[in-house]
Amino acid sequence: YRKSSEFYCSRASKEIKKSVAYHLINSAKIIQRSWRTYKLRPETWAKRVWNM
Description:
Elements: H1 10-40, H2 45-51
C-alpha cells in the first residue's frame, strides 16, 4: 500500500531533503579527506624502486 503525496507534510519533506543533502555533503567530505590522505602519504620503498 503506497501513500500519496498529499498525506506527507511539506515540512517533513523539507526535513527529509535537508537530511539527504547533509548526508551527501558529509559523504563527499569523507571521500575528499581520504583521497587527500592517500595522495599525501609517504612514498613507499617499493614505489621508489619501481620509479628508478
